[in-house]
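[Meeting: bench + compute handoff]

Bench side (C.D.) handed over the final construct sequence. Compute side (W.E.) agreed to return the predicted structure before the next meeting so the bench team could plan truncations. Sequence as handed over:
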Amino acid sequence: MPVNPTIQFYLDQFKNQMSPTYEQMNPLELRRQEDEVLTRFQHKEHVHEVEDLDLSLPGRTLPIRIYRSGATTAPALVYYHGGGYVTGSIETHDAICRTLANEADCTVISVGYRLAPEHKFPAPVEDAYDALVWIGEHASELNVDASRLAVGGDSAGGTLATVSALITSERGGPSLVHQLLFYPVTGTEENLPLSLIDYATGYLLDEGLIRWFQQQYFNDENELTHPYASPILSDRLEQLPATTLLTAEYDPLRDVGRAYANKLISLGVPVTYKNYGGLIHGFTNYYAFVPEAKRAVKEAAHCLKTAFENQKNILG
């Protein structure tokens, strides 16, 4: 299947723009530009209630945004935005969180974790897990059902979601019923995956940008093999909750995500995996005007809603 025509038009426009080499790229300027673009073109659905809070954590304060689909106590998805650990924010992912709240009939809590290069590995990991713990401990105040918590995210945010789930297994909680992962960065056990070769350039996220993000985030190359950076290398994967993992055909990280799904399946973790033809990395940013991306988001939300309903039935 060829690249979706709407996405191809966007890619063609991007190719025609003058851009600096990665050696010249300024992280703060890239963050500003992406924030401006992604917030400008969002289609924001109405949700029952939106609330902004600041979490007081040891040594720092983190913003969260709560999207409630109704007035009653509800299950919750703790969501981490993508952006290579360098860009992205609660604002850039406002629309997708609204949609997930409505489609899955749940509360979505978006976490504004610290970004690199100001805050390198493992600072975002610590933020992701500590925010999850705080949410679990304050569930009643947030009108959240603590017995039905899930984590989710896209790209680097998907990594933070599954790594947070790994840490819960190490530290004894909070208990999670599901993880919802859009094209996560999960590392590799073997040789370079074919998708990293076949789609190394020309599809927005390219090999050079991936390496640049790594340089901003990690203190040295040895950290790339840490399970909190490459969760596929963890020895605790069998303890992860049921998983929905979605990838895109024209994404250099496609095969990395597929390998992670297969590894979880081999260890007995229930997994719903699907690769979407015609789409590229970051397709959740285009779901409002790309029907295939909208279908992917809706199907992901359906899996999440089903997980919440199943847990409710189990608990009686």
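W.E. noted at the follow-up: The CA atoms of residues 113 and 127 lie 6 Å apart. C.D. will use this when planning the next construct.
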